[in-house]
Sequence to fold (102 residues):
Amino acid sequence: MAREQYQRLTEPMFYLLLSVVEENHGYAMMQDIQMLSHNRVKVGNGTMYNLLERFLKDGIIELTRLEARKKYYKITSKGLDLLKEERLCLKRQIEDSKFLGE
Fold:
């Protein structure tokens, strides 16, 4: 199962998967990651393409089409499950730390 291999997602992994919930291509993904993270997370070309290759190999995302020199990707159901699991883990961490106050 995906969760066993990906015990926890790094921020770049998390935001990359968020950026391909809808079909997307590389340059737009980098912009979306910055927008979704409010400029906290910036993913360089090397990191992004390494993650894309790894996610493709593991069935987390799929290549949907090639247009000119752009490759378009979209999250798979396996990837969406992984993303939802990570979101649930993050929510639990927030709940577990409520005693600290805001």
Summary: The longest helix spans residues 77-96.
